[in-house]
Structures are given as structure tokens and as C-alpha cells.
Amino acid sequence: MMWVARRLLSSVAQRSQYPGHSGLFRRPQHGCLPDLELRYLQCTCCWRSRVPVAGFETLNAAISSTSEPCKEDNRSLDACYTSEQRAAILQLLNTATPSELAGVKLLRGRKSLNLVEYRTKNGPFKTLESVVNVPLLKHKSAVTVFNSILNPVKKERKVRIQLAKFIRPEVDRSWLEEASNIVSLVCGTNKIAWAQVDRGMTVLEWQQLDCPNFLKGTYMASAYLNDVSAAVALLPSADFYIIEKSSISVQNTALFPVMAHMRTVEAMLFALLEPRNLPPESNIPPRVLNMMRPAVGRHFGLMVGESRTSGAQTVRQLMTESVTQKLPRINFPPELLVKHRNSFQMGSRRGGEELCDALLQAVAFYELLDESSS
Hints:
By secondary structure, the chain is α/β, with parallel strands linked by helices. Helices cover 44% and strands 11% of the residues. It has 15 helices and eight strands. The strands form two sheets. It has a six-stranded mixed β-sheet, with helices on both faces. Helix 10 crosses helix 11.
């Protein structure tokens, strides 16, 4: 610093001798030195603020944009961002759905659901500082979330790989995109549930049927066929029937009876729903498809390790948004809201679990299809 001070004093002396020149920012007379030569003689603790004076606004902007705001824990979160940045962050946090929030860094899984629950209970966030009141979101993680919202990272997706991850057998994308509606089916241990949803994300039908012969006695094929046929007779017409593919492994001997039951019902549904007597050369896609259960769970943040948790809370949130938001994630007719409003309460002994899964599978089908094509 003493050397810098002496250089500054020398510059002042030069300025008094050469009144038409600019001291430290004076260009070399012979042009043999670069323009930035003397600018590094400023004090290092304030050089950033002097860069615009020399006409380097671009560099200053680059420095500002790459710096991470609010590294100090004792600063208010709101003080770390401009009013425009605060508005953009709060807009997304107050309006985004759980799946949209899951696309933000650190908000996958439970954090996104906690955030939606908090704003539903306490109203929209008014300050950035209030976000740290959400469970699992503290100061440092909140800063990461805010920066991710302001600077989202776009991930390129490989279309065919994405389709193969959740739809089997793989079919041409154009057939799926042209479907006007689908019926999503989920088989439980004593019932079959289905949800019909159109391309405009409106629920057309949503119900379940008890199957008293499931997992009874010696798994009589004729008894199974009666129950499955009764359900198929009630299904509406659709472009595709999407059947949940269970993730139970054949190596899991404890659950082998359940796995055998699921595979039996799945095979019967395929046989009864797929059109028959089609010539081999016909250019018609399969009408019955499998959708991977873990893919739906990951889409809604319901996976804990290799296990999938209940989707009842997510479905309740979707039903609430259908009434409270102008552009909900999915639309429910009033009669279906009234019919199922008490089906997913905590004390219902999981009676509506298949209904939940059928609806979530239909929503995930359309959303994953849109995501994989973007």
C-alpha cells in the first residue's frame, strides 16, 4: 500500500505538470504499452468500483452476474437481491406446482411438498426471509434455491431413452401425442381402479371396483377372470389403456404371492383390452401399454430409496388446486370432487390408494411425454 500511495502522489504531481492529461488513466505517449497497463496501480480493495469509470461496464456486469449473493449468514435474504429478482423468486415460489418446484435445485422430494403445504396454510410468501420457516429449508439451502430460480440449468433430454424409461412396449411418439384421452389402470390386492383423462388434463372418469376373488384360495383362474372381466366391462373407450407395471422383484420371496397376483391380473387386462385378429402387417400401435410404477413415483417425488410412498397427499393438493387456481395442473368436474373429497383422508385405512395411483399415473403420462419431447 505504501508503494501504491507513493505512485498516487507521483501521479498527482504529474497532473499538476501536465494539466491536459489524466494522471493514472493517462495513455502512454508512444503507444508501446497496452491500455490497461496503469490501471492495475489502483488499490485492490476498490478496483471493481473503478472499472466502469474506465469504460469497462461489460466486465463489471460479468463480475456481478457470476458473484453469488448472500454468502454471509448475517445478512437478510431480501437484502441480497434486487427488487426485480425478489419478485421473480416469489412469483415462482407462490404459484408453482409441486412438480414445477421439483425442477428447482434442492427442491425435489419432500422440500417441494413442504413448501406447498406452508404457503397453503400461511398464505403466499411476502419476503424471501420467510422461506426459511419452511421445514428443511434453511439459510444456505434457500440461497441455493433462489439462485437456481434466477439461473435455471436447462438439461437436454434424449427423447427415445426417456420414453423407454416409463412406457413399455415402446411405440412411436406420434401415436402417443395424437391420443385424445387415455385410461390409467392400477391393480390392488382386492380392487382395480382407473382414471380417464383427456389431453386437456381434465378427468373424465375416476372410479374403482372391488374384486372379491383376488388373493383368495388357490388363485382360481376362472374366479380371477370373472373379476377382471367385470372391471373391463365398465371401462370407457380410450385411445390407450395404461396399466401400472409393479416394481416387485421376482427375487423377493416374501412378496412372491402378491407379485404372482399382479402379473396374473396384468396379463388378463392385456388379453381383454388389446384388439384381436389384427393382421401382422397392420400399422396399428398396441392399445395397451405398461407404465413403470417407479417412474411415476420419481415424477411426483414419492420415492424413498427403492420404495414408493403414498400419493394421497399429492392427490389432495391437485384437487385443491383444481378449485383455487385459474390454471390448475389437472381439472376435476365438481361431481368427482364431491364424490372423492373424503376418499384420501389419513383415517380411511388406505382405501383410496389405488384411486390415487390411477390418477397420478395418468397425470405423469402426459407430463412425462411433454417433458421428453422438449
